[in-house]
Design goal:
Structural class: mainly beta
Number of strands: 10
Largest sheet: 3 strands, antiparallel
Helix content: under 10%
Oligomer: single chain
Strand order of the largest sheet: 3-4-10
Radius of gyration: 17 Å
Order of helices and strands: EEEEHHEEEEEE
Distance between the termini: 46 Å
């Protein structure tokens, strides 16, 4: 018998997208969600920010060769929220509701993340991944940030 050789793709910090058009690529820095085509920051800063500083943090981010990062909208952030929970001994609830490629990055007890979507002049929407829901909070509160790039309203 002749053994068929297959080449394995090389994934670099700037190679985002689908590998062999079959599954989303994940690197140490970014992950492309094949459901939305959004590119997500994988490793997150353990620092928490006010809403205005969260927006500034993403705007100033340079990662994987890109500098067009932004704070995701509530709609975008909810696309990585799942109905299925995964065990996470670090989170407050013991579970995390986030797509698996981003699960290992969820190493904080409280998992509130800012969105760029305002509720009113003094509040903005957050998504809480340790319980799997969204709600609005005062913009002076401090929460975590996961930046995103790309996308469209087609999802």
């Amino acid at each position: 018998k002749i053994k068929k050789l297959t080449a394995k793709p090389i994934v670099t910090p700037t190679s985002v997208g689908k590998i062999n058009n079959t599954r989303p690529a994940i690197t140490g820095a970014t992950w492309r969600d094949s459901d939305t085509n959004l590119i997500w920051q994988v490793k997150i800063n353990k620092k928490r920010y006010t809403w205005r500083n969260a927006k500034r943090c993403c705007k100033n981010l340079s990662l994987a060769g890109y500098d067009d990062w932004r704070l995701p909208t509530k709609k975008e952030l909810k696309t990585i929220l799942t109905k299925q929970s995964y065990k996470n001994h670090v989170s407050y609830s013991g579970e995390t509701y986030i797509k698996k490629p981003l699960l290992k990055s969820m190493t904080m007890e409280h998992q509130f993340f800012w969105s760029s979507t305002k509720y009113n002049s003094s509040r903005a929407w957050v998504v809480r991944f340790d319980y799997g829901y969204d709600r609005y909070r005062d913009v002076s509160n401090v929460f975590y940030v996961r930046c995103v790039r790309g996308g469209s309203d087609s999802y």
